[in-house]
């Protein structure tokens, strides 16, 4: 495990992780300015900025060097902007542009759909203000006033810098943030703030100015952590989330302690003669010969458990790295790189636990188990994302996965994850399976009529809702981050909320299993998994409601992309909660049956 973690860290640092390390520049040194793609909340379809043929440099080769940006299809290209450290610039002409009729029509469409231009200066995203005076990432492309369209052709960059020098000789500076004021300005307009909007059918100069502002703060991300306009509301949401989660945890833990352990404690306090009679009265003791009987569908269950363990470790790792400041939501490519690397390297855990449980259930088709743990989820993900990619290609969006990115993803899957998965599977099949406290007989005991609340529908309905409620408010914030291009800063709370979700999923599953055993129902395996798994179903239902209330997607490709992505997210949440519930219930059942004397 230590070797695996070290290898993962080395691979993460091998890729370019932009914006994290603070860079220093000497006075007059040129600062790299890169153009990202244009994005919009209303369409969720990114486009290449240079499709508008605005101040296009000689070379527009994609500058992305990290694998996450390649998989996401994120474009980062060179620009003609020339900015030098601590040198102010006033109304520098970048180029002269005369939009053709076709370009004007394209530009109108982008303006109508509220597209923003995204740029990176020193690998930091630029910030601006929208018409509500809220800070946003990127700069609006233009504005429409009745029937007149205007293009924002003048950018006024305000760059906050920090003096990193220890002396007045050879001073060096680092950049903390970049904000942009924008203006539509005709060639004969002199005053930038005159309120004159230049129509797009006019010849115009594309200009920019640069103003440096000295700051005493050395925090490179301070401005980006403060762009959340409703931070007070988010803190209230976080407080409510923790309160609800802690109350649910305390309530379920209390029931487990004072109800479940009561039977065993009574048994331990009575003399041998009386305790034998008491054990016979325990509902869960009477099915000791069947409680460890393997369930049906052991191959499918083993693959689900292995995949769930992989996603659980991956999610906790990502949230932890985000909580300590290693990851920032503004750098989606960086975030995606770490997610992919962690996913690939945890493939060995998937193979190990899938094969371990399959052997524990005395399964015979070990090759199918190995292939299932290695390929089941990637094939399904490729199918769904493949359909989304075809839709994006028809839209001519820049986020469509190109051939090179596809080959990179397949190489990671077959070249790294598959060997690791095979190694994990081999070890899992070789290790001796743990022994159960009691053996099961050849003939299963008949299950008596069960209370209505133990029916699959009702138990999953209630159990899944309890799990989802504990993280519902945090999920709403994450939806804002993903689908409204906002910024999320509360990763510490998200990390601890994930821990609470794991605890609640375990407790809900244990409680369900205990009620099943008390009613002499030995078929607990799948229900221990499916009850907390239903939280993923609630997430997908919530995504439908969120789409109807908060999103205005009208294009079929965007709707397909949204629901395909939310389906995969719901599946991942369900797998995590279901796996945690299953593992906790398995430990619980083995524990209570090992604490009493069985014939």
Describe, in short, the structure shown:
This protein has 599 residues and is of the alpha+beta class. It has 16 helices and 16 strands.
N-C termini distance: 40 Å
What are the low-pLDDT stretches, counting only 5+ consecutive residues below 50? 1-19, 189-196
Please give the radius of gyration in angstroms: 29 Å
Strand content: 5-15%
Describe this structure in words.
The chain is an alpha+beta fold and about 600 residues long. It has two domains: about 20-225, no CATH class; about 295-430 and about 470-595, no CATH class. About 50% of the residues lie in helices and about 15% in strands. The chain has 16 helices and 16 strands. A five-stranded mixed beta sheet has the order 1-15-14-16-6. Strands 3, 4, 7, 8 and 11 form a five-stranded antiparallel beta sheet that branches. The chain has a two-stranded antiparallel ribbon with strand order 2-5. β9 (about 125-130) and β10 form a beta hairpin. α1 (about 1-15) packs antiparallel against α8, α5 (about 230-270) runs parallel beside α14 and α14 (about 490-520) crosses α15. The longest helix has about 40 residues, at about 230-270. It is elongated. It starts with a helix and ends in a 5-residue tail after the last helix. Mean pLDDT is about 80; it is low at about 1-20 and about 190-195.
